[in-house]
Amino acid sequence: MSTVEFRVGSRAHITVETEVCRSCTTKACVVCCPANLFVPTSDGGILFNYEQCFECGTCYLVCNNEGAIAWTYPDGGHGVVFKRS
Ligand code: SF4
Ligand code: SF4
């Protein structure tokens, strides 16, 4: 993590429809996100924070519920920056 910097944009480049997530039986995003940005809530939904996203796309690939995740890249000049160590 010492070689990673996040230039956080004001627009969330990924949004999660927690109402759709309530019917999800796998919650695959929780175990697949390398940044641990998906947190299950006690009511069956998902709490998501886009700010430290690696932009790897794994959550979008593993999610099998249509409409749960809207995925885009951050606006120009924002997002993850991988630095040389
Ligand atoms: S984002 Fe997709 S995989 Fe994750 S809980 Fe919601 S529906 Fe399930
Ligand atoms: S794109 Fe990758 S790092 Fe970002 S939320 Fe999805 S799985 Fe996590």
Question: What can you tell me about this protein's structure?
Answer:
The protein is of the alpha+beta class. The protein has a single domain, classed as Alpha-Beta Plaits (2-Layer Sandwich), CATH 3.30.70. It contains 3 helices and 6 strands. It has a two-stranded antiparallel ribbon with strand order 1-6. The longest helix has 5 residues, at 28-32. It binds iron/sulfur cluster (SF4) (2 copies). One iron/sulfur cluster (SF4) binds next to α1 and α2.
Notable features of this structure?
85 residues; alpha+beta; Alpha-Beta Plaits; 3 helices; 24% strand; binds iron/sulfur cluster
Bound molecules: iron/sulfur cluster
CATH class: Alpha Beta
Helical/strand content category: alpha+beta
Low-confidence stretches: none
The CATH topology label is: Alpha-Beta Plaits
Order of strands, main sheet, comes to 1-6
Average the pLDDT over all residues and give the rounded result: 95
Q: Give a short account of the largest sheet.
A: 2 strands, antiparallel
Radius of gyration: 13 Å
Instruction: State the separation between the terminal residues, measured CA to CA.
Output: 10 Å
Secondary structure: number of strands: 6
Rough outline? elongated
What percent strand?
15-25%
- Count of helix runs: 3
Helix content: 10-25%
Structural domain count: 1
**N to C succession of SSEs:** EEHHEEHEE
- The CATH architecture: 2-Layer Sandwich
